[in-house]
Amino acid sequence: MEKILVEKESKGVRLDKFLSSRFPDLSRVFIQSLIEEEKVLVNNKKERASYKVNENDEIIMMETEVKELDILPQDIPLDIIYEDEDVIVINKKQGMVVHPASGVYENTLVNALLFHCKDLSTINGVKRPGIVHRIDKDTSGLLVVAKNDLAHNELSNQLKDKTMNREYIAIVHGVILENKGNINAPIGRDLNNRIKMAVIKDGKDAVTHFDVLERYRNYTLVHCKLETGRTHQIRVHMSYIKHPIASDPLYGPKQTLKGNGQYLHAKKLTFIHPSSKEKMTFECELPDYFTSMIENLRMGKE
After folding, report:
1. pLDDT tens-place string over residues 214-243
2. CA torsion sign, 228 to 232 to 238 to 241?
3. In sequence order, what are the beta bridge partners of 212?
4. Which CATH superfamily includes the segment(s) 164-262?
5. Which of 89, 187, 248, 249 could cross-link to 206 by cystine, CB 3.0-4.6 Å?
6. For 14, how many CA atoms within 13 A lie in the half-sphere containing its CB?
7. CA-CA-CA-CA torsion for 280, 278, 117, 74, nearest 10 degrees?
């Protein structure tokens, strides 16, 4: 169950449109069906999809469980960087959800994986077969998938032990004067907006290291390395130091670079192979839309 408090700037927006902006992974039609089924309440009352929200309205959105039969294999092209009997390393495109969730049962990475291979680890259940770690829908780049439970456990332990190395490239707002920095700030659920994460006193330890790669007129290109792996960690940490990621709809400003989501790319991934114990490193190039934006910034067009 999600509780959302309507802020002043959203006053007068239709209920279904308001929820669509808060839950970009859910279709407008699906949200309207939830409203009709009374799985959305406004101030503990049923309202129509056309209801205009008011400041301080409390909206409660019930969770809907994903069932095993809802998750079907789909023939969706995958950019596979490496594959063997234990692991698959994938370069995920921007806009693809990693695994099914409420209202999103199709066109996810999991749907594509179920079509591609018969065997995936079962540790995370029917909703997330093979998924060891995630990257956000609008973040592109590398992630590793486990094809059996032994590989899954080994890779999960590397995440816990901080021996799996994940490196990202991002365009952020503002010009960062320092050449490098470390952000050590605990992250937990935002106390005022349950959809978001935030730096909070009682959050879980979170550490992000960054290096400046290039500076532009109003933006900076940075390389980020995760020491921990909290939900939305880089997005939250960069926003916390007043340099939110460009085009981030959740943590960034409305006036930003044109794009279909945050300019954040998981460029490099290193882990110890669960069977061979060999150290493996993979890299993938920035997507075309990302490199085009960098060129625009270099030429002062943005």
Report:
1. 999 999 999 999 999 899 999 999 999 999
2. negative
3. 222
4. Pseudouridine synthase (3.30.2350.10)
5. 187
6. 10
7. -20
- Domain 65-161+278-296, architecture per CATH: 2-Layer Sandwich (3.30)
Instruction: Point out the catalytic residue in the list 16, 57, 136, 248.
Output: 136
Lowest mean pLDDT among 19-33, 80-94, 112-126: 19-33
Instruction: Collapse the DSSP code of 83 into the 3-class scheme (helix H, G, I; strand E, B; otherwise coil) and give the result.
Output: strand
Residues 2-61, CATH architecture: Roll (3.10)
Surface-to-core class of residue 117, CB atoms within 10 Å of its CB (0-12 exposed, 13-18 middle, 19+ buried): middle
Identity (one letter) of the amino acid at 156? Answer: S
Q: What is the pLDDT of residue 268?
A: 98
Which letter, b or e, does each residue of 89-110 get, where b requires 16 or more Cβ atoms within 10 Å of its Cβ?
Answer: bbbbebebbbbbbbbbbeebbb
* Integer Cα distance of 239 and 81 in angstroms: 31
Structure tokens at 222: 């940075």
The answer, yes or no, to whether residue 54 has pLDDT greater than 90, is yes
pTM of the model: 0.78
What confidence score (pLDDT) does residue 44 get? 86
SS3 assignment, position 240: helix
Look up 136 and say whether it is catalytic: yes
